[in-house]
Write a structure and sequence with these properties.
three-stranded antiparallel sheet
Length: about 150
């Protein structure tokens, strides 16, 4: 059985991490068995090109497709791997918090039109009931607020 995981970005920017739980007698975290690079830790930032701006410093590390994921970037969104020490590219300050691990995927559409998709094929998933969740932090212009979903 093949199942597609699709996250559609429509906010200004997103930090994404995923997890999957199998419904058995107890909830068992099966994320590492089926979802590749769920918290974007597999992308070695020492091998990626750092992106910095003179105004505030390190923005992140340029990545077209995070390891294990496919990005269809029609909107030409900013696509980076970030750490808590990176600055956002919209003057909201440092990233400071991540949903899981030490890295996150940063996707910023800004004022562009179009869509950007982030997807992964989950293969060989046994028949059963699963709960899939994604931690997404979004921030919005003119409000300088953000939230975790």
């Amino acid at each position: 059985m093949r199942t597609s995981l699709l996250l559609l970005s429509t906010a200004c920017f997103l930090f994404v991490g995923t997890s999957a739980f199998c419904q058995t007698n107890e909830k068992e975290d099966v994320t590492s068995q089926y979802v590749a690079n769920a918290s974007f830790e597999d992308d070695d930032i020492t091998k990626l090109t750092a992106k910095s701006e003179p105004a505030d410093g390190l923005r992140g590390y340029v990545v077209s497709n995070p390891s294990g994921w496919t990005v269809n970037n029609v909107a030409n969104a900013v696509s980076l791997i970030v750490t808590k020490d990176c600055y956002t590219d919209n003057n909201f300050g440092k990233v400071t918090t991540l949903g899981d691990g030490n890295q996150a995927y940063y996707l910023r559409m800004g004022w562009s039109s179009g869509t950007t998709t982030l997807r992964q094929m989950v293969k060989n998933l046994p028949k059963g009931k699963y709960q899939l969740s994604a931690g997404v932090r979004s921030a919005y212009a003119n409000q300088a607020t953000s939230s975790w979903v």
